[in-house]
Structure formats: structure tokens, C-alpha cells
Amino acid sequence: MRNYQCSRYKERENLLYRAWGFPSPDSPYVVHFIYVHPIEWYLSIEQPFRFMDLPNEDMLQFKCYELRDLLRLFRSSDAGVFEWLQSPTVYRQDTAFMEPLQKLMYSYYLEPVGRRHYTDTIRKLLERDLQAEEVSLKQYLYALRSVLAALWIQTYIDYPPMDFNRLCSLVSDPVILSRINGLLKLKAATSEQHAIARDEELNFFFEQTREKCLGMSRIKKDTDAASLNKLFRKMVGL
Fold this sequence. Notes:
Order of helices and strands: EEHEHHEHHHEHHHEHH
Distance between the termini: 32 Å
Number of strands: 6
């Protein structure tokens, strides 16, 4: 992994790769980068330069988070953050930050927020991309992950795992399982933009499962910021 540094920030970064379990010859490396400003930045009454960005390359994509912004997203149960915090492949990380944050995941995860995110994603895909005569493998697998993530939340009242095989354990219909395995084999051997004919049976499974996951919330949590504030102060040196 190439070493990227930026001198205006502390050398305290966490580099993680979000791997959804969909191998493909042309899938890019997606690196999630958490950075911390010098302590003076956080103590100023002004609003200085806030954002850091790194240029994407053909097979390398970056997503950069400033520490405080990341913790705010975490507190609001941002789906992307909860996904990549479970990444099976870690290039580099600060365990003094990542381990305490990962221990807080269950306490802070808001089941209604996660379920709404994934059911809305499926609704939008069913209304647009999945109605085309031909649909890319990437779109179908994205839809599969989203609908199974919603079903996981509905079933276990917990954030969904990154491991796609664990999500597939929720599928009992052998026909749907066969379709899923066929898509995974095809994606492993071809471009993720490879298109296949619209699969009405899969679309029906998506719609049925989405409707099943639209129930009322069963758990309420108090996501007080105290634990995240404590971690934030520790990491910026307060």
C-alpha cells in the first residue's frame, strides 16, 4: 500500500479498506482515511480550513474524514461508517482510537436509522436501475447487500455485518440462494459493470423483503455524546 502523508496534519491516521465480499477483476481499492488537526485548530474561534482530500487514481479511491466529523457521523448511525468500521482488511490504524470506537458500535447504533437507509436504497434501485432491460452486476449486488442488511436489522435489532456470507444466512429460499451464488461467480470472473438481463424473481424478492422490513422501531437508545467526547478529547490531546 502506497504511503500517503500530508504535513499539515498530525501523523495520526487510520487507513481502512471497505471490502464487501464481492471479488472482481476491476474493483478499486477503497481507502477510508481519518485525520486529526493540530490541537490549535480545535481551540480557535475562527473556522479555518476544514477539509482534506486526496486525489483518486484508477484503482485507488480515498474517503477522508476529519475526526470530529467522523464521530458525529458515528453518533448518527451513518451506514457507511458502520460498514467500514468492520472492514476485514486494515492497512494501518491507531488502535488507541479504533478499538474504543468499535466497542461503542452496539451502544450507538440506531436500528430505525439503519433500516430506513437500506430500505430507501432498495426502493430507489427498484424504481430506477433495476427496471432497465439490462442491469449491471454491481447494481444487483449492491441491491442484495442493502436488502439483506435491512433484513438483518429487522431480525437481530443490530447493525449488519460486512461479511456477505453472514448476510446470506438469512436467505432460506434455495432459488434465491442459487441466483445469488451465480451473480457472485460471474462478478469474480468479469467486470463489475458487466450487464445481465433484468431478473424479475430477484426484484420480487427485493420488494417483498423491503416491505417486511418497514415495521415500527422496537428499541430506543439514548446516544449521549459523553463517551465520544471523551474519545475525541483523548485523540486531539486535550
